[in-house]
Specification:
mainly beta, globular, 127 residues, 4-stranded antiparallel sheet, Jelly Rolls, 11 strands, single chain
C-alpha cells in the first residue's frame, strides 16, 4: 500500500512513539478536510490491519475521524483519534472485494498544514 519515505508515520501510543514504515497518510489542513483511499481486495486476503493515529509531527489539538467501508458499507461509526493515542485495527475482509479508507479532520489544531493522519503499516493479511 505504501513503502517510500513519504509513507513513514510516527505515532504516539500514550507512552512511546512508534515508527510505521508502510503507511497511508492524509493531510490535516483544515476542519472537515476529507481524504478517501479505495483498494481492491485480492482473493485469499482475510484481514485489513493498520494502526491508526495522528503523526507526532502534527500540531497539537488535531482530531481526526477514521472510517472504514467494505463494499461501500460502513463497518461502524468510525474512530475519533487525537494525538494522544492509537488504535490497532484487524478488520475481517473475507468475501469482500473493495475497501475504502476515509479520514476527516474534525479539528485541525492550527492554521494550514496542521499535520497528517496515518493508517500505520496498512496491509492485507491472510491471518
Amino acid at each position: 500500500m505504501g513503502s517510500s519515505n513519504d509513507h513513514v508515520a510516527k505515532l504516539y501510543d500514550g507512552s512511546a512513539t512508534h515508527t510505521y514504515n508502510s503507511s497511508i497518510k492524509a493531510g490535516i489542513n483544515s476542519f472537515n478536510d476529507t481524504y478517501t483511499y479505495v483498494y481492491t481486495i485480492e482473493d485469499g486476503m482475510r484481514f485489513f490491519r493498520a494502526t491508526i493515529g495522528i503523526d507526532v509531527a502534527s500540531k497539537p489539538g488535531a482530531e481526526v475521524l477514521f472510517r472504514v467501508y467494505l463494499n461501500n458499507a460502513a463497518i461502524d461509526s468510525g474512530y475519533l483519534m487525537t494525538m494522544q493515542g492509537v488504535k490497532e485495527l484487524a478488520i475481517p475482509i473475507d468475501g469482500k472485494s473493495q475497501i475504502k479508507l476515509v479520514t476527516t479532520a474534525q479539528k485541525s489544531g492550527g492554521v494550514g498544514n496542521s499535520g497528517q493522519a496515518a493508517w500505520g503499516d496498512a496491509r492485507f493479511t491472510t491471518d
